[in-house]
Amino acid sequence: MSRIVYVNGEYLPEEEAKISIFDRGFLMADGVYEVTSVLDGKLVDFEGHIARLARSLRELEMASPATTEELLEIHRELVRRNRIDEGMVYLQITRGNPGDRDFVYPDPHNVPSTIVLFTQSKPGLADSPLAKTGMKVITIPDIRWGRRDIKTIQLLYPSMGKMMARHKGADDAWMVEDGAVTEGTSNNAYIVVGQTIITRELSSDILHGITRAAVLRFAAEAQMEVVERPFTVEEAKAADEAFVTSATTFVMPVVEIDGTQIGDGAPGPVSTRLREIYIEESRIDAI
Ligand code: PLP
Predict the structure, then answer these.
(1) Could you say which of 18, 42, 136, 151 is catalytic?
(2) Which of 70, 184, 223, 242 is found 20 to 30 A from 64 (Cα to Cα)?
(3) Quick check: CB of 98 below 6 Å from ligand 1?
(4) Euclidean distance between the first and final Cα of the chain, in Å?
């Protein structure tokens, strides 16, 4: 069934949505994005995603084509029109169409940014079978650029990483730099040692996950100990538990790293409890 998508002020059937071949998103990956999950037809962590979007735009000197209120309205309208109960809303803003190809940024007063939103229905997001078995990851070198804190649409290396994982019979890849894990291809990475949750601290080395922020807040509220520091692959392999977080996977246990079983090879109690808390609280707070 055809979706209704949003492009530059218009709601259109997906077949009718069009973007110029000169759009800088298409030619140069000059754009940013956000993914907001939908539970019970409502938006999870919407404010966090919009705050990060504003930061990404600011860092790239890009204009926002809509206010927070307008973005909320568009998100809700797409969820309504496409009858999304569980799934996600994808939002992308690019530096628009200057009418030609040039490395120099066009003047934002003359070239409006391009904004596109669409939904993806994902029934069973909360009740994911993978969360019950846990996922397998491989490790790969982190050869991405140095501003991983900006959520840009340059996703070729993460995409290659997922394919490398698939070719090795794994579900995802963790990226490693100077011996320490940075993050997953599309998620933040954690280990649990004893009762302590360890995850890399925020910097330009990783994306500042919105789910990460919520999960660390819930962990603190549940009196769990959290330490924000880099951890090595060896530490991760010897850990009691491992997991990742992202808007579309919530908290997802990791049970194998490069073929080494983590803990007893099943999702551990800390990861399982954090997933329950995150989904429970997200249902309550969703708007
Ligand atoms: N790290 C990377 C590289 C990502 O691409 C993502 C999400 O796409 C995340 C972390 C998790 O961020 P969030 O929890 O905001 O979805």
Answers:
(1) 151
(2) 184
(3) no
(4) 26
CA-closest residue to ligand 1 atom 8: 186
Specify the ligand 1 atom closest to the Cα of 45. Answer: 15
Q: What is the pLDDT of residues 247-262, one digit of tens each?
A: 999 999 999 999 999 9
**Cα 209 to middle of ligand 1, angstroms:** 5
- 151 labelled catalytic: yes
Q: Structure pTM? A: 0.97
pLDDT, one tens digit per residue, over 168-184 is 999 999 999 999 999 99
Q: For residues 222 and 277, what is the distance between their CA atoms, to the nearest angstrom? A: 9
Q: Which atom of ligand 1 is nearest to the CA of 207?
A: 1
pLDDT tens, 227-246? 999 999 999 999 999 999 99
Beta strands in the chain (DSSP E): 4-7, 10-13, 31-39, 42-43, 87-94, 114-121, 135-141, 172-177, 180-184, 188-193, 196-199, 225-228, 241-246, 250-257, 260-261
Pairwise CA distance, residues 185 & 172, whole Å: 7
Per-residue pLDDT at 13 exceeds 80: yes
pLDDT given at position 25: 98
